[in-house]
Design goal:
- This protein has 273 residues and is mainly beta.
- It folds into two domains: 111 residues, Trypsin-like serine proteases (Thrombin, subunit H, Beta Barrel); 103 residues, Trypsin-like serine proteases (Thrombin, subunit H, Beta Barrel), CATH 2.40.10.10.
- The protein contains two helices and 14 strands.
- The strands form two sheets. A six-stranded antiparallel β-barrel has the order 9-10-11-14-13-12.
- The longest helix has 8 residues.
């Protein structure tokens, strides 16, 4: 799920170091190509029980930032009833049990206090407190985060990852996808012909080449950028254009993680970056 707008710590759980080398392919589509199994080990799947029947379906992505906390987008919160959600970490193929998954219930939901449902006002970020801690394995790592107020240069290459749709006709995806995506600085993203006043300095824009973008199902997931000697999650997928997700001059917009560090620290008590 990605909202579309029309122009408007546990023992053994460690932080990620530099991961494996990328296999950069050319067959890029909206959601990218199959990610390396061990690449984005801080990626989580946020799942929702729509009909109270015990079946949880993927709705959004998330990032492991603490043994007890998952970072996601505020607009992914469809209900304040935490029992309707679960988080799956160590996931790779959504519809296949590979023995690496940890299915964890959500204890409570903390939405940013200034989120009001208007994507153009920003603050599209939330934390999920887990009922049980994430256990560190070869398939699960804590994400590194940026430094407070850290920004990225124009055209800096990051990676978007998620289980979102891979084309405009709504083809579902099973295997975690990744794609390189270039940062669009605020001075460009806020131009009238791009996102105008909907692009705030508390957001990161990336893409807009008409090829690579986030799409429904990617919301809440990470923008992964290699900065200061480590992969760090600089963004949370927030919104994109209505209709086809990969529209030219309409970058995917992310909540800028570095703008919300103090708020997250006040909840998690952690200051690891």
């Amino acid at each position: 799920m990605i909202w579309l707008v029309t122009l408007l710590s546990c023992a053994g759980l460690i932080w990620a170091e530099q991961p494996l080398n990328h296999n950069e392919q050319n067959d890029r589509v909206i959601g990218g190509y199959d990610a390396d199994r061990l690449m984005w080990r801080w990626q989580a799947s946020l799942q929702y029980d729509s009909y109270n029947d015990g079946y949880f379906g993927h709705i959004c992505g998330g990032t492991i930032i603490d043994a007890f906390y998952i970072m996601t987008a505020a607009h992914c919160i469809l209900s304040k009833d935490s029992s309707k959600y679960r988080v799956v970490v160590g996931e790779y193929q959504l519809y296949k049990d590979e023995g690496t998954e940890q299915n964890i219930n959500v204890e409570s939901i903390i939405v940013h206090p200034e989120w009001n449902g208007d994507l153009g006002k920003g603050n599209d970020i939330a934390l999920l407190k887990l009922a049980d801690p994430v256990i560190g394995t070869n398939y699960v790592l804590l994400a590194n985060l940026p430094y407070p107020e850290q920004t990225l240069d124009h055209d800096f290459t990051c990676y978007i990852s998620g289980w979102g749709l891979i084309d405009y006709v709504g083809t579902p995806v099973e295997i975690l996808q990744e794609a390189p995506i270039s940062v669009v600085e605020h001075a460009v993203c806020s131009r009238h012909e791009v996102w105008g006043s909907l692009a705030l300095k508390t957001m990161v824009c990336a893409g807009g080449d008409g090829v690579i973008s986030g799409c429904q199902g990617d919301s809440g997931g990470p923008l992964n950028c290699y900065t200061d000697g480590a992969w760090r999650v600089h963004g949370v997928v927030s919104y994109g254009p209505a209709g086809m997700c990969n529209q030219y001059s309409k970058p995917t917009v992310f909540t800028r993680v570095s703008s919300f560090m103090d708020w997250m620290y006040s909840i998690t008590g952690s200051r690891k970056v």
